[in-house]
Amino acid sequence: MKNYTSAPLPFMGQKKHFIREFRKALREFDHATVFVDLFGGSGLLSHVTKRERPDARVIYNDFDDYHVRLENIDQTNALLADIRTIVGEYPKKKMLPENLRKNILEVIQSAEQDGFVDYITLSSGLLFSSKYATDYASLQTEGMYNNLRRAPYSCEGYLDGIEVVHADYRELFNQYKDIPGVVFLVDPPYLSTEVGVYKCRWRLSDYLDVLTLLSSTSYFYFTSNKSSIIELCEWISEAKVNANPFRNAVRKEMGAQLNYNSRYTDIMLYRR
Ligand SMILES: C[S@@+](CC[C@H](N)C(=O)[O-])C[C@H]1O[C@@H](n2cnc3c(N)ncnc32)[C@H](O)[C@@H]1O
Asked: Given 73, 130, 234, 268, which residue has the most CB atoms within 10 angstroms?
């Protein structure tokens, strides 16, 4: 049985760098009988958990329908093989000339007429570093590079024994929270202040909502120093404020433009 150390198909934000530590830490959870991966993403944490604990139930919340990409992996491999033929021996990492880009777009367009196209996987082979297109229209506007890998993708056995569900994390949490031996895997989206390529925009309040689930449960929680969430929680626990200091304050906003694609809002609050 293959042990995957990264998701079979590209997925931004997958926890591949944490796999070794996560696997080790799981060994301290021998009391656990059910693991619920609330923010499953690529399912990598679910996969590692099931391999480490085949006796336990593992529920993977596939909020992004990643399993559809896995189910269509043969189609994706076939399309990539056609694209490799077009690219030929063109140097790796180099920007593709317009004629090749056009041919590739034609092949992709006709593949879409026949069925499913995995734009995220195509993006990782054809777009600049971590750029992602999610549909034909957005792919069409991008310059293309030869970042194609040679080997076909494979996902054999990746989700074996795992229960795949699709739900909002709150709903799933409520469904499992009272089950003895439950452990939640909590890896929410990155805190984002700008609307980018992501479907959803996660603000600080969304982040804080997730924390309310953690107080009386067994969990793994993932974050980064960019979110400052740990610092915020430590600060709150010292109770430096116990109510909203801005309550009843008047709020005024001023739009500001940082550069051509980045705007922010300056805020003034006052209370007499
Ligand atoms: C950081 S990723 C998880 C990565 C995952 N642990 C992995 O290793 O691939 C966060 C995921 O939460 C999903 N998500 C966003 N809003 C959600 C919600 N309300 N309920 C459940 N999942 C959500 C995102 O679409 C994204 O796939």
From this structure: 73
